[in-house]
UniProtKB/TrEMBL annotation:
Domain of life: Bacteria
Single Gene Ontology MF annotation: acyltransferase activity, transferring groups other than amino-acyl groups
Organism per entry: Emergencia timonensis
InterPro entries: Acyl_CoA_acyltransferase, GNAT_dom, YpeA/RimI_acetyltransf
Keywords: Acyltransferase, Transferase
Protein name, UniProt field: GNAT family N-acetyltransferase
Gene3D superfamilies attached to this UniProt entry: 3.40.630.30
Residue ranges constituting the N-acetyltransferase domain according to the UniProt record: 1-161
Amino acid sequence: MEIRLMNDSDDRKAISKIYEESWKFAYQGLIPQDYLDGIPTGNWAKAVDTPGWNTLLMLDGDQIVGTASYCHSRFEDWKDYGEIISIYFLPAYMGKGYGRALLQAAVDKLAEMGCTDILLWVLAENERAKKFYEKNGFSASGAYLDDNIGGKSLKELQYVRHVETREE
């Protein structure tokens, strides 16, 4: 497995496919099924090129199997934080330990950017994801966002982690 930064020649639709398949698998029973079934092909293809975002890819040979995006926090209340925007895998690659490596790579990149505190958001009902983040040094901060996806009211919990930078 190789982890590297996304480059201009990477297929944005292949990256979007990871989001699409991951959402359809991981969010079953959490987000309305008709919403998941209706996610269009290429839905996230443009999002990975959002100015200020950085995207890591995990490759198995030539196939992109995982992706993580990160940036300086998008939220004014946490402007001094780094943020992990997303981390997704093709379902066949979930639960095999690859997530830990990709998450740590994103944390390391944020630390290189000078971020000593990192935040991310996770659906309150997503027990699997919460356990994953907790095993990897994140803890719930008590902050949350109210969201609505597919007509269902959802709560996103903020998880945070402190990291040492090279200067500390």
